[in-house]
Amino acid sequence: MLGKRDGIFWVASAILVASLLLAALVGNAFLLLLVASYLLRPTLHSLGFFPKLTDERQLFIQYRASNVGFVAMIVGVIIVILLLMAKGDHTWEMLLAVLMAALALRALAGVLMVGDPLVAGVRILVATGLLLALFGIAEGGLSGAGAHVIPGLLVVGVGLAGKRWPRPVAILVLVLSACVVIAMTRSILAGGHGRGWGEVEALLFLTMPPIVAAVCLLRASAPGGDVTGPAAVALLAMLGGVAVNAGAQNSPLSCKPWGNKPSVGTMCTLAHDDTVKGHRLPAGTRLHYDTTKALDFFWITKPAVFEQLELAGTASGPHHALYPDGTPRMLWLARTQEVQGVPCRPISFWTEVIGHTSAVFFHSNGRLAACRLGRVATIKGRAFAKGDRVAFDANGGLDAGK
Amino acid sequence: MKTHLRRLRFERGEMSQAQLADLVAVSRQTIIAIERGDYNPSVKLALQLARALGTTVEHLFVLEASDAG
Questions:
Q1: What is the rounded average pLDDT of the residues B24-53?
Q2: CA dihedral sign of residues A71, A75, A78, A84
Q3: Radius of gyration of chain A from Cα atoms?
Q4: Rounded to a whole number, what is the distance in angstroms from the first to the last CA of chain A?
């Protein structure tokens, strides 16, 4: 940036040459190195390295240009997410996780760069609490808002208390974060490889900001600024918890009460591939048992084959329903597939938003009851358009169209 | 904000933009931008420029009526 051939110039040049060599030799993977070469100096400066090898005007220009680029990147990612949603491709969850992580990191860095650990710690906890309360309302609806906002408001209260008692609050937050890490890691590991990004994302979002806040509060309460001891102990405790849980995830089924009311039923998670009610289900499948202990619905955490049909699956649904004897009652397909000779369409974001559900229904005797078509078809001599709903009676006769 | 950087640079032995840039460890383009009024330097850089030219920041940079808060 200074126009001189300093150390950063030569390192960036070496990376550039490496990228060009890669381009010439393998024609692949060179673009990231080009980007690294381009961003090396401002990145090093942002991280606090080599401050004397930077030009303040050029950094100011870089800062403004980066903000423009950041906004463009966010808009681009949102557009891609919407396109993936419309296609029913759940990769959008990963993109959303990356987007949220970038925004959260930006917010965290901004608060930390204020340079006052006490202010930073309190602000991070209060913001985390307010977001928890907001998500609580979004999850539980306004009718249940009272109960759902309480955890968030408690975190806000703890954050405000940190202003007066930074060290006790920091220790409390570290202990609570360790408990959350242990509980969520246990849940994730119990789910096996089939668990979605949503779980990991939730773990990071729930625990990282409080841990950073706790470290800030410890720094604020220690005039010498040495927080290595307590922070290291907390980190070791968390890693220990993770290790203990990793070793304890051998039980085939981990269960817990479902919902806020114990009367609703029980939710269990398969630790490994298993056969349930005669159906082969992958590890991570969530099984819901009603109050009579009957399996009434399940969901898989990623698309998987079930009774020769590829079903849709994400960390949060959709819910595939069963009759009490285990016969499929309602399934959601991952793509258009022939179900008993009928091309039924898959679940997608738009079909569910518009309201024309794409669920495939079955009679208790196993015969197809109804679905919407994924393509034009002639069924029992009658022509149907794509998207039409076809229904059958329990004997397989055409019941109603449209 | 008005700057006397260009005049003071010439009064100090016709110092070139590149020489001044070297003295305060910035690029020549930054000196050009400051002289044109396109960039307001940080306090640190303003102090460095003033020291390099043997003057004070108040002599080097002057607030204009349009800068009044």
A1: 92
A2: negative
A3: 27
A4: 67
How do the domains of chain A map onto residue ranges?
Answer: 115-250, 253-401
Which pLDDT value is given to residue A402? Answer: 46
The structure tokens 């008993």 sit at: A340
Count CB-CB contacts under 10 A for residue A125.
29
User: Regarding the domain with residue range B2-58, which homologous superfamily does it belong to in the CATH classification?
Assistant: lambda repressor-like DNA-binding domains (1.10.260.40)
Q: Name the average pLDDT for chain A.
A: 78
**CB proximity A8 to B under 8 Å:** no
The parts of chain A modelled with pLDDT lower than 50 are 1, 193-194, 225-227, 241, 243-251, 401-402
pLDDT value of position A245: 46
Q: Does A57 touch chain B (CB under 8 A)?
A: yes
Indicate the residue of A2, A58, A60 with minimum beta-carbon distance to B25.
A2
Q: Pick from A2, A57, A58 the residue to mutate for testing the B interface (most B CBs within 10 Å).
A: A57
Question: Are the beta carbons of A192 and A88 closer than 8 angstroms?
Answer: no
Judged by a CB distance cut-off of 8 A, whether residue B28 touches chain A is: yes
SS (H, E, C) A58-100: HHHHHHHHHHHHHHHHHHHHHHHHHHHHHHCCCCHHHHHHHHH
- At residue A43, the pLDDT reads 77
Cβ contact, residue pair B30, A58, below 8 Å = yes
Average pLDDT over residues B11-16: 88
In single-letter form, the type of residue at position A237 comes to A
Segment A157-191, tens digit of pLDDT? 999 999 898 999 999 999 988 888 888 777 766 65
For residue A269, give the nearest of A202, A215, A346, A191 by alpha carbon: A191
Phi and psi torsions of A296, nearest 5°: -105, -30
Of B21, B28, B42, the CB nearest to A56: B42
Q: What is the ipTM of this complex?
A: 0.77
Distance CA(B42)–CA(A51), nearest Å, equals 14
Tokens of residue A49, six digits = 């390295």
Q: Running DSSP on this structure, what letter comes out for residue B41?
A: P
User: Residue A17: CB partners within 8 Å, gap ≥ 6?
Assistant: none
Closest C-alpha to B34, from B8, B62, B69, B2: B2
pLDDT value of residue B7: 92
Give the pLDDT score at A300: 87
What is the three-state SS of A198-215? HHHHHHHHHHHHHHHHHH
